Structures are given as C-alpha cells and as structure tokens.
Amino acid sequence: MGMSIPASVPVADEQLTSAPLVPWQLVVWDDPVNLMSYVARIFRTYFGYPEEKATLLMLAVHNEGHAVIATGPRETMEMHAQAMHGFGLWATVRKAPQ
C-alpha cells in the first residue's frame, strides 16, 4: 500500500535556500580543422553577433586557444555547446568565475 507524507512534515526545498544561480560560460576552443572565416560566420549566424564582435571572438579563439562566446544559465550553455558541436566546433561549458 502506498504511503503518503503527512501534511505537517516540512519538505526541504534546496533551491529556495541555495545561493543565487552562478552563470555558466560557453567556451569555444581552437582546432586545426575549421577556417577562421567559418568560425566567425558561425558566431554571426548562430548567435547573431555583429561582424566586428564575431571577428574579435574568432581571433581570440585562434590566438589564445579559446574564448568565452556566451554566458548564461547552464542548460542554455549546454544547448549552445551541442549546437557548436553540430557545426564541427570544439566547445565546452564551465562555471563562470565568481
């Protein structure tokens, strides 16, 4: 027989008592395969970045080995990472530093 929790028993809700949500970052990594123009085009078309921002981000990926392309909720950044994988780019998600 099923048991029910009496109404008088408090149920803890950790989300209500936890610290504010920490933003997450989408990091795109340099790779030896994709052309720089292709990477910039993906940043323009997928994220809607203007050409100048897309180019600066692409150059950061190329020159520094990686760049933070977007910041936001974890689920959104994971969705973006999967999309980048679909375009053949190397991408990971990490917690933003506090």
TrEMBL record:
Molecular-function annotations in GO: peptidase activity
Alphabetical list of SUPFAM superfamilies matching this protein: ClpS-like (SSF54736)
Superkingdom per UniProt: Bacteria
Segments forming domain Adaptor protein ClpS core: 23-92
A Pfam family of this chain: ClpS
InterPro entries in the cross-refs: ClpS_core, Ribosomal_bL12_C/ClpS-like
Keywords, ordered alphabetically: Hydrolase, Protease
Gene Ontology biological-process annotations: proteolysis
Protein name (Swiss-Prot/TrEMBL): ATP-dependent Clp protease adapter protein ClpS
Organism: Microbacterium suwonense
Gene: clpS
